[in-house]
Amino acid sequence: MRATHTTAYLKLARETGTSFVTVYHIHSRKKMTASKAIHSTQAPRTEQWEPRGQPQPHSGPKSTDHQPRQAQEERRGPSQGQMVQAVAFPSPVPLVDIGINLVDRSFQSDIDNVLQRAREANVRGLIVTGTCVRTSTAAARLCDAKSREHPLFFTAGVHPHNAKQCTSSTLDELRRLASHPRCVAIGECGLDFNRNFSPPDVQEKWFEEQVRLAKELKRPLFLHCRDASERFTAILSRHMPLPAPAVVHCFTGSRTELEGLLALGAYIGITGWICDDRPERGGAELASLLHRVPRERLMIETDGPYLVPRSIKPSKARPGRNEPALLPHVLQAAAAALGVSPEELGRSTTEVACRVFGLPRHEL
C-alpha cells in the first residue's frame, strides 16, 4: 500500500468515524468509492430530536415506476465540493423555506452544517414539515434544540400516506403539538391517490378530521394533493370559509386544478420542480402557469431532501439531497418565469410566508 493511500485512508476514517480497516476493506474490494463511503457510513446518533423508524413520506410529482420515491431518490449528503457549487449564489433578500423535511434521517448526521449553509444562502426561516405524530414531535424537539441558532418552525399533521396509522388519540396528540410556540400550521395533510399507501376512504376521513382541527384552532393548513383533485376540493369546500389560510404545498398540477384551488382561496407553494425543463417532467408547464397565481398567494420551498433543482449545473455536481441552501435556485427559476427580479420575488414570497404562518419578522 502506498504511503499516500495510507494517509488518505486515515483521513477518511477520522472524518467518518470509521475504522481504518473498514475503509481499506471497502476500497480494496471496490464496493464503493471513498466519497460514497463518507455518505454510506452511519454516523453516531446523538441528537435527541432524531426520528426513529422509517423515513417520512414525500410530496411531489409522479414517480416513473411503482416504487415509493424514497427508494428511487438518493439520500446521501453532498460532498464539501458539491455544496460549494450548490451555494454559489445566496439570495439577495432573506427567504423562507415553507416546506423542508428536516427531521428526515438523511439530515441527522450534519444538521448544524445544513443550518449553516442555509444562513450562507440567506435562507432564514425554515418550516419543518410534520408528516405523522412521530415526525411532528421530532420537529418540535428540533425547534427546541436549534431555534436559537436559526429561525425554525414546524407543522403538525398526518400525511395521507400515514393516515392508516391514525388512532383515537391522534387528534389529541396533534392538538397538543399545535400548542407549541413554534408550531405554525396543521399538516402536512390531504389526499394522495397516486399510490394509495393508505386506503382512499381512510385518507379522506383523516384529512377532514385535520381540516376540522385547523378550523377549531384557527390555524393555517399545510396541504398535499396528488391525483385526488376532485375529492380534495370537495372536502375542503365543505369547510369554507376557513379562519386561516390553506396552503397547497409542492403544487405540480394542471391549469384546471390550479384554478380550482385559487377559487377556494388557497395559497400555492412552488418547489425545485420548476427548475426541471424536461418535457416529460412538467417543469415548463408549471413555469407557464405561475403568472396565474396572485403574487400575494405565492410562496417557495425546497421539500428537501427531495426534488433537487436540476438547474444546478453540471449534473455530476448536483448533490443527491436537497436542502434549504438550494432554495435560491427555486427563487431564480420562479422569478425568470414571472419576468421579475429574484430580489422582487424574494421579498414578496417572504412577506407572504410571514403573514400566512405568523412568523416573527425580527427573527429573519
Automatic annotation (TrEMBL):
Biased composition (Basic and acidic residues): 63-77
Keywords per UniProt: Cytoplasm, Exonuclease, Hydrolase, Magnesium, Metal-binding, Nuclease
A Pfam family annotated for this UniProt entry: TatD_DNase
Transmembrane domains' residue ranges: none
SUPFAM superfamilies per the UniProt record, alphabetical: Metallo-dependent hydrolases
GO cellular component: cytosol
Recorded superkingdom: Eukaryota
GO molecular function terms noted in the UniProt entry: metal ion binding; single-stranded DNA 3'-5' DNA exonuclease activity
Region (Disordered): 31-82
Family to which the UniProt record says this protein belongs: Belongs to the metallo-dependent hydrolases superfamily. TatD-type hydrolase family.
Protein's UniProt name: Uncharacterized protein
Organism name: Astrephomene gubernaculifera
